[in-house]
Write a structure and sequence with these properties.
315 residues, 4-stranded parallel β-sheet, ferrochelatase activity, iron, heme biosynthesis
């Protein structure tokens, strides 16, 4: 008897695989408009500074997808059911549409989509789902989606562990958790999402509050990072402005950044925080640490496997 195969489309933002792909990647982000020479040089320079030609996000994503497929089949697969994971990227190959098309070519008739981002916004996760659903409809593929998982118990546990580990770099947790300012952060989005009653900001606060409550933090706040360089306003305050403010107004000397909106090491973590924010911290004479990224943490992979299986059971 042949197994029933469930396709799992694992979606993420995507990244170039090498420096010579940066221009094509940036052009896709800019909806077909090539970057200026100055813009291209700036982005390429950022990649060179963090990776020297090796792009960790792509490899991290590959490992996350492989770990998810193994975990799904170990925990929820059986003699009559097998999970097969595919990638679908927003701005690099295989694109979301290409991932859906590959599932159809492989004879998959039922699929579930999940994004490597725990928090829902119509401008982020919503866009991924829309693209995947349109292609699935075109190919007559039955597909449903995980929209968010921002307060899943295992996700919160994984993030709590990271905050505690990072706090220990400042001293005994019982002492420093009331002294270190913890800045939870996520990728900013255009401020117009507020007019849409988009759940993104509230979900991020829910995640942050759940972690703070578990760790027993009294000195924490939320800040945004990595806003796009466009003519429209983005959600703020930016984390660099927040650092300046807490130092100038409250004489804060120890800061922990917990980028809870990101699940992997990539440009917004390795450059925006590890290089740009650290440079400012040295200028402000403060001790700045950040939490380790989730990457293939078993608790995170278990979270993904659980929400995918829950989605399957709803069908």
């Amino acid at each position: 008897m042949s197994k029933s195969k469930i396709g799992v489309l694992v979606m993420s933002y995507g990244t170039p695989e090498s420096l010579d792909q940066v221009e094509a990647y940036y052009t896709h982000i800019r909806r077909g408009h090539p970057p200026t020479a100055e813009q291209l040089e700036e982005l390429t320079s950022r990649y060179e500074q963090i990776v020297g030609g090796f792009f960790p996000l792509r490899e991290n994503t590959n490992r996350q997808v492989a770990a998810l497929e193994e975990t799904l089949n170990r925990q929820y697969g059986h003699d009559e059911l097998e999970f097969v994971c595919y990638q679908g990227l927003k701005h690099a190959h295989p694109l979301i549409e290409e991932g859906v098309e590959q599932m159809a070519k492989d004879g998959i008739s039922q699929a579930i989509g999940v994004v490597l981002a725990p928090h829902y916004s119509v401008m982020s996760v919503g866009g991924y789902i829309q693209r995947a659903q349109a292609k699935a409809d075109e190919l007559d593929l039955s597909m449903s989606f995980v929209k968010d998982y921002h307060v899943h118990p295992k996700l919160i546990e994984a993030l709590v562990n990271r905050v505690q580990d990072a706090l220990s770099k400042f001293g005994p947790i019982e002492t420093v958790r009331d002294q270190v300012r913890v800045l939870f952060s996520a990728h900013s989005l255009p401020a117009r999402i507020l007019e849409l009653n988009d759940p993104y900001p509230d979900q991020l606060l829910e995640t942050s509050r759940a972690i703070a409550d578990r760790v027993g933090l009294s000195q924490w706040q939320f800040s945004w990072q990595s806003a796009g360089q466009t003519s429209v306003p983005w959600l703020g305050p930016d984390i660099l402005d927040t650092l300046r403010t807490v130092v100038a107004e409250e004489q804060v000397k120890q800061v922990l950044v917990a980028p809870v909106g990101f699940v992997s090491d990539h440009l917004e973590v390795l450059y925006d925080l590890d290089i740009e924010a650290q440079a400012l911290a040295r200028e402000l004479d403060i001790h700045l640490e950040r939490t380790a990224s989730l990457n293939t943490d078993p608790l995170y992979i278990d979270t993904l496997a659980d929400v995918v299986n829950q989605q399957l059971e709803r069908k």
